[in-house]
Amino acid sequence: MTTMSPLLKQATPVVVDHALGSWIHATDGTEYLDFTTGIGVTSTGHCHPKVVAAAREQCGKIIHAQYTTVMHPPLLELTEKLGEKLPASMDSVFYASTGSEAVEAGMRLARMATGRPNIVVFQGGFHGRTVAAASMTTAGTKFSAGFAPLMAGVHMSVFPYAYRYGWDEDTAVKFALKELDYLLLTRTAPNETAAFLIEPALGDGGYLPTPPAFLEGLRERATTHGIMLILDEVQAGVGRTGRFWGHQHSAAVPDILLTAKGIASGFPISAMASSTALMSKGWPGSQGGTYGGNAVAAAAAVATLQVIDEENLVENARIRGDQLQAGLKDIATRFLAIGDVRGWGLMQGIEFTTAEGTPDAATASALQQETTKHGLLTLTCGPNGNVVRLIPALTVSTQEIDMGLQRFEAALAALSS
Ligand code: PMP
């Protein structure tokens, strides 16, 4: 019998038949409240009727219009709609299919534009699984071990992970900026450094918001030295954190912005945005792909952006996120294994630690399994695997958050008994 490759790690045994909004219906008839959204992808909920209608309609017109051969209206419309959301300095968008490709596009553009070889990344960053993206990923050795040599020219600096150090945020930010300055002094000189690549909130690396002051410190150094600030908004963008872009929690504006996941509610499309002046430093044909900017995915993305506006989903993410975090902090008072609850909007992480304060992956992993048994789908993350992450749809209701919190606590109680 042919089976799924053991290279895939399956978080749950669930086989989905169909799904709507925040709910997944398994083939065995079980219903699950989905706080994973396909790793932060189904932003408008599963199968939002307007997204489904847009994709269906586009399927009847043209499915694959290959954007380097013929252009198509959904991509032109998407570019216009995305333009309304982008920083004012950005007036040019490049499309691909996956987050990893967008990351590679950003890395290549930064190198081409500056003529410099090196990229500085930050501890715990996750940027994808292609060899170049994995080379810039430091969220765990499992993402790169065993297939070296990796891409050259990547240097890692410290992330201001205040909880891990037992510091306040301000101290952690000052330390991380000092370490970055030291890296620029000792390992990769500014005139050899093409870019700083960072997520506005660490995703797979532990669901940790990047302190605004740290991003602002990066911006300052990038401007001083002509280094590109690349923000990987693949997981934290498109309303997820209660702002349209994760970097909007700070005053820092990136030179290059990368997006994917939530932008099309489940259809594969990704984008790199920047200024025409910067994009023009690359040459036509240097980037692209067979499936990039697919017409059905682009139509779904246009519908997704419309739904996000019409239904005030960024605001909903902020309010429901506050509700979720308050509920989790309340639960944390009853369970000692919870060391930290943090996050912005509907991107919340619960970090598990032992009584001695060391990372407790066993509890996080057992809890993730247990929540499935209680009808709530969750995921873990973090280099230590000791963070449970909750990523509900941006459409999630007050009642669904309450229900999720009840199921989360019931699962925790079942583990503790
Ligand atoms: N960047 C970030 C921040 C991500 O979260 C991910 C996916 N988890 C990626 C890049 C890679 O995206 P993809 O899996 O679509 O290649």
Tell me about this structure.
With 417 residues, this protein is an alpha/beta fold. It folds into 2 domains: 16-34 and 312-416, Aspartate Aminotransferase, domain 1 (Alpha-Beta Complex), CATH 3.90.1150.10; 51-310, Aspartate Aminotransferase, domain 2 (3-Layer(aba) Sandwich). The protein contains 13 helices and 17 strands. The strands form 4 sheets. It has a 7-stranded mixed β-sheet, sandwiched between helices. It has a 4-stranded mixed β-sheet with strand order 1-2-3-15. Strands 13-14-17-16 form a 4-stranded antiparallel β-sheet. The longest helix is centred in the last third of the chain and has 20 residues, at 313-332. The radius of gyration is 21 Å and the shape is globular. The model has no long low-confidence stretch (mean pLDDT 97). The structure holds 4'-deoxy-4'-aminopyridoxal-5'-phosphate. The site of 4'-deoxy-4'-aminopyridoxal-5'-phosphate has 15 residues, from α4.
